Amino acid sequence: MDDFAVVEQHIAALSDQLEASLERERLFREDFSRRLSQELRDYIDHRLRHWISSRGCIALPEGAKIFTHTTDGHRILLDPTEPFISFHVMEHGNWEEPVRKVLSNLLRDGEHYIDVGANIGLHVLYASSLVGKSGKIIALEPHPTTAAILRQNLEINGLLDRVHIFQMAASSTHEEIRIFEYFPQHSAMSGFSLAKQRIEQFRGTPIRVEVNTVRIDRITMHEQTAHTVIKIDVEGFEKDVINGAGYLLDNPNTSMIIEFDAALMDMVLGDETAKNLFLYLVDRGFSAFGISEEGLYQVTNLESIIDNDVLFTKPESEHYQRVQPIVRR
User: Fold this and answer.
1) Please, what is the average pLDDT of the chain?
2) How confident is the model at residue 295 (pLDDT cuts 50, 70, 90)?
3) 147-166: burial string, b at 16+ Cβ within 10 Å, e else
4) Which of 69, 127, 165, 198 has its CA 20 to 30 A from that of 153?
């Protein structure tokens, strides 16, 4: 074979390789464009559905509550006299989107969710769609006014038979009567006592009521190995709740989302509370991830917590593996 024929063969081979590369590039671009277009359509449809439904907010005569829908399609009753949660939900269709994103990665059909400080049930409603009919949900909300709205929101969504409501305060003690402070101007702020700085910041007047306490390990004793996510938001008293978790902390399938406001914890329970709680959970084998709008970030010490909400999960658990795709590298 002469040199010219060899060159022609090389050119033909290179031409075939080039055409194959161009075809792969074309397919990649086509697939990328298709997926991007679908994501954009899904996002627009999602926002439009909420916009259309939220335009139909109705003020109901009884208690002047507002009826609307979340972005998930759940019916929701809101108290317009409490503007912080209500107005945010009416505008955005949900509450604490970064926490919702973590829940969506953690929870699977048939698993368990415990909401300590469930408020009016926004995260409970979302979790109900994640764990399905075979899952189990426990919601704890001690204040009678908020607990009543929580019950109504579950009822209008047909979930009363699937969610166990405890109008009690999670604590390290069981069946004890304690004073509980409620902040009508911001219902997300309530606890055994409210920090003076918070009251002055929102110019509110706390209302004090008596509530019963419960240890969460007492209401989940038959679920010792279940995949469980516990969300704890109790305005600085998170350590008291953890002290009542008992065996749940030993279960490798237990993960917790804790509102970790170090300054607030120290205000209501004394200096070093936040530090001691963080070290206690790390010593129990938990890894910590801060929750932000961009995803999760590794937390190695108390000072590296940028946002208040922190996920505690064990490296040997399925939960740990499930959240890896949203961990910022």
Assistant:
1) 86
2) very high
3) bebbbbbbeebebeebbebb
4) 198
- DSSP character string of 226-282: S-EEEEE--TT-HHHHHTT-GGGGG-TTEEEEEE--HHHHHHHH-TTHHHHHHHHHH
CB of 151 closer than 8 Å to CB of 133: no
Block residue for tokens 């998170």: 238
**Run of H or E including 166:** strand 163-166
The DSSP secondary-structure symbol of 191 reads E
> Is there a contact between 296 and 326 (Cβ–Cβ < 8 Å)?
yes
User: Stretch 126-146: mean pLDDT, rounded?
Assistant: 94
Cα–Cα distance between 99 and 79 in angstroms, integer? 22
Q: How many CB atoms lie within 10 A of CB 2?
A: 7
What does the chain come to in residues?
329
Domain 94-326 -> CATH class = alpha beta
Tokens (6 digits) for 80: 């317009």
Would the pLDDT of 1 be above 60? Answer: no
Q: Parse the chain into domains and list their residue ranges.
A: 1-52, 94-326
Q: What's the per-residue H, E or C state across 301-326?
A: CHHHCCCCEEEEECCCCHHHHHHHHH
